[in-house]
Amino acid sequence: MSERTVKLVIDGREVFAKPTDTILKAAKDNGIYIPTLCYLEGLTAYGGCRLCVVEVKGNPKLMTSCTTPVSNNMEVITNSPRLNKYRKQIIELLLAERTHTCSVCVANGSCELQELATRFGVDHTSVSRNWKRFEIDMTHERFVLDHNRCILCTRCIRVCDEIEGVHVLDVKRRGKDSSIVIDLDEPWAASYSCTSCGKCSAVCPVGAIYVKLKPLSETKKKELPEFVVERRRR
Amino acid sequence: MTKNIYSNRLPVVQQLREANELSEYPKTVSDKRIILIDKTIAAYGYRRDALLEKLHVAQNIYGYLEKKILLHISEKLKIPPSQVYGVATFYNYFKLKKPGSHAITFCLGTACYVKGAEEILSAVEREFNVKRGETSADGKISIFVTRCVGACAMAPNVIIDDEMIGKATKETVLDKIRSLL
Amino acid sequence: MKPEEIQKIAEIEHDMRMAYKYRIKVCCSSGCIPFGAQKLLKAFEDAVKELGLQNVCKVARTGCVGTCSVAPVVLIDPGNHLYQNVKPEDAKRIVQEHVVNGRILEEFVYKNEAYFSKQYRLVLRNAGKIDPLRIEDYISVGGYSALAKALTQMTPEQVIYEVTVSGLRGRGGAGFPTGQKWNFVAKSTAKPKYVVANLDEGDPGVFANRTLAEADPHAIIEGMTIAAYAVGAEKGYIYIRSEYPLAIQTLKKAIEQAKSYGLIGDNILGSTFNFDIELRLGAGAFVAGEETAILSSIEGLRATPRPRPPYPAVSGLWGKPTLINNVETLANVPLIILNGGAWFSKIGTPKCTGTKCFSLTGKVRNPGLIEVPMGITLKEVVYEIGGGVPEGRKFKAVLVGGPSGGCLPESMLSLPIDYESLTQAGAIMGSGGIVVIDDESCIVDTARFFIDFCMDESCGKCVPCRAGLPKVREILDKIMVGEGTEEDLKVLEELSYLIKDASLCGLGQTAPNPVLTTLNYFKKEYLSHILDGKCPAGKCNIKRMEVVKK
Ligand SMILES: Cc1cc2nc3c(=O)[nH]c(=O)nc-3n(C[C@H](O)[C@H](O)[C@H](O)COP(=O)(O)O)c2cc1C
Ligand code: FES
């Protein structure tokens, strides 16, 4: 284990981090909150949701803290009116992108998107919402994939590929038409590679993949098991 | 692969099959043309990174990428099928549906757009009742849209079955298509 | 092959050329082929044979000279006479008059001197001069002597030094100093290293790189090989979009020829340096030109960009150090090595050296491909080279930098073309697209067209670009049918800033440029749609007013 040899300043506080740490890790270890959504410790960072963006002094661009490694004498700002405005807008865009209706969602109360919306005070969306209906795959005997609630964070894809090691899921199409796909775009029940391990439902931050007839609070895990994370860190 | 993990799912699969919701692919493709694909795969030494090259070859041979071909490539290269599907659907050039017998490609690049390609395209859509990117119900014509065919100086350009029509107008294009049908 | 042999080939070629009094060169690039260039080539060959002039007159193919609007074109040497709109039927008459009677056929002559006088052809130095399918032609005009010089007389450090001194900056869009980039890759210790030549050119309305590949493929290969020598790479990829079949063929052939001459492969020119080039095809994705997405694509994955750091110079293809350069950047390199970095740095402006190719299209009299020194003003490009907008129409705006460029009004035409000035004005250099629009086009519609393009091409990885662009488009749509409000303009602007600042890659970071620049320079037109229910160009179909009238 390497030592905490890198000195950086986060929000005016001097902190120490390991050379391999990301800004997010350094902040978390020091009790500084940075919102995240696509990031899950133990999976490769994706950098897609852009909620974790921070300002790094001397860099005109915003950096995602989940992917940017720390460096000596770095000065980071995690919390500014500009950043929070962008975060709020991103949450609004996510809510407007598909039909996120909390009151009829299995994830109501344990949804990470909902939590973030509350935290950042998103009480309405300034852009018009999309009411297009996406399909719901209920063919599997235990799991449901509801595209209406998917935010394309790809946690399920990564956990399936990196932890379970089968890569049943991927993204099809691109841009606004992207969606999660099972094998060659088959109903879940017909997937010949799925092992029904259920990891995807455990890591889904919203209610897009869930276990039938079970309360989400029972099946959902906010983190991967510590030992998995430990092993993957090496 | 052990059978028993999957066996409990078979009734559902059966139902879906009966309801015709599931494409059936044979495990082995009995088609001579597949050998050509296998040859390219071997020529690239089964390297996974040249997936795009193989999809190009497959599309050149078959005209489009059927699911069974994708599955074949996926098994040969040992790439998960969902990944192959993800790649094939990401790139616009790959077609997963059988195209019509006449391909009409509209350039909607900047130069062509500025010079009114959109109007010609909508006229064609209306007259033949086909939307862009789709094939007409009778399978006769497909309309494709591309961004820039590189003859901007002659904009707007329409390509009808490999023949380029430069400085196209509504009339010339409609007449040309009518003459094909 | 030894360096001296290159010299010998050049001499033999030169003698062979001198044996012919006339050279008829038919442009066989993508611009001319749809208009019958190949038939024309055949017609000229036949005509020469028929008139028994095989020993006096040589017919050859050549690359694009840039005057695509008068395709197909034919050049006759000596004198470099440019004939335009030539039909196969005319071939015999032209040969008869020009070669036999020594008379120039005025009716075919391209008369627009201004089109060429303002240009400075550096990258496209051989376009229209050599036969792109013959490596000997390239060698005869001094090709591969830069490679020989680099390999035999220079160390990799010296090569990088010359490129740094030249001030050459990336032509792919961002304008990053090339010498500095090479230095980063050279310093990375991991092996193997890779060189990627970016020929994805997905911008609609841009065809400079294609023209280069079709007219002078060996310049790309030579530049790439020198780059590989400088950074210590052994393997190179040319990533080319599949929509360019002719360029693909030309490059394939060029790579084969270079291999058979031992100019790429093992022990190049008798040195210990090995370098191999492989061609990779794209498949219709604009974002694949982005420097990290191109890596994913070459690895056979979905072309989604990766967060940086780590930069490709440290961890690129398969996690190894990778140099990614645009082909136009690479084509400059042989010249810099031959003539010295100091020579190159005198062209253009002090901060922005060299030249840049632009595809000039839209409502101008002389559309085509041009190459101009950096620092030239937009006015010179649009009015002097382009000849201004056609009769009876009024200039409205010029779009610089492709789909994510900026829309600049008449008052900005005195802007010099260099990276900083363009960025400051809200545009970008991009891949070098200049589209002129006139008063027939609606500004809101134009902005929507570009947003539409970027939305279609967005990879869908990051939220601002994937979910934000459709909303921007929705608002523009609303304005176009007359249902927009002033509140919408505010939301539009805020969304644009979010997408610009928070997106993962250059696609999202530049996609709102057309909206932001039009909001800045043409706000009146937006307001006229919203408040007066009128489209100044008469293009948008504004429903609201119809309803009110009824
Ligand atoms: C969306 C997007 C598309 C791009 N497309 C191209 C392209 O088609 N060709 C190219 O050379 N560079 C393209 N680039 C720029 C590359 O990312 C990269 O900067 C360039 O290839 C580096 O080469 P250079 O230093 O020689 O400019 C694109 C960038 C973005 C963000
Ligand atoms: S958590 Fe860093 S981008 Fe999503």
Structure explained in plain terms:
Chain A folds into 2 domains: 6-79, Ubiquitin-like (UB roll); 85-233, Alpha-Beta Plaits, CATH 3.30.70.20. Chain A has 7 helices and 10 strands. Chain A has helices at 23-29, 81-97, 112-119, 155-164, 199-203, 216-219, 226-233; strands spanning 6-10, 13-17, 53-56, 62-64, 75-77, 136-137, 143-146, 169-172, 179-182, 209-211. In chain A, the strands form 3 sheets. In chain A, strands 2-1-5-3-4 form a 5-stranded mixed sheet, covered by helices on one side. In chain A, a hairpin with a 5-residue loop joins strand 3 (53-56) and strand 4 (62-64). The longest helix of chain A is centred in the middle third of the chain and has 17 residues, at 81-97. In chain B, strand 3 and strand 4 form a beta hairpin. With 181 residues, chain B is an alpha+beta fold. Chain B has helices at residues 4-7, 10-18, 34-43, 51-62, 67-77, 81-90, 110-114, 117-128, 170-180, and strands at 102-107, 141-146, 158-160, 163-165. The longest helix of chain B is centred in the N-terminal third of the chain and has 12 residues, at 51-62. In chain B, 46% of the residues lie in helices and 10% in strands. Chain B has a 4-stranded mixed sheet, covered by helices on one side. Chain B folds into 2 domains: 12-90, no CATH class; 102-180, Glutaredoxin (3-Layer(aba) Sandwich). The N and C termini of chain B lie far apart (51 Å). Chain C is α/β, with parallel strands linked by helices and 550 residues long. In chain C, strands 10-9-13-11-12 form a 5-stranded mixed sheet. Chain C has a 4-stranded mixed sheet with strand order 2-1-3-4, with helices on one face. A 4-stranded parallel sheet of chain C has the order 7-6-5-8. In chain C, helix 7 packs across helix 10, helix 9 crosses helix 10 and helix 19 packs across helix 21. Chain C is globular, with a radius of gyration of 25 Å. The chains are: A alpha+beta (234), B alpha+beta (181), C alpha/beta (550). Chains in contact: A-B, A-C, B-C. Chain B binds chain C through residues 48-53, 55-56, 79, 83, 86-87, 90-94, 108-111, 113-115, 146-155, 157, 164, 166, and chain C through 30-31, 34-35, 68-69, 71, 202-207, 210, 242-244, 280-286, 288, 297-303, 359, 361-363, 367-368, 399, 402-403, 433, 435, 437, 441, 446, 449-450, 453, 459. The site of flavin mononucleotide has 24 residues of chain C, from strand 8 and helix 20. Residues 36-39, 47-52, 64, 66 of chain A line the site of FE2/S2 (inorganic) cluster.
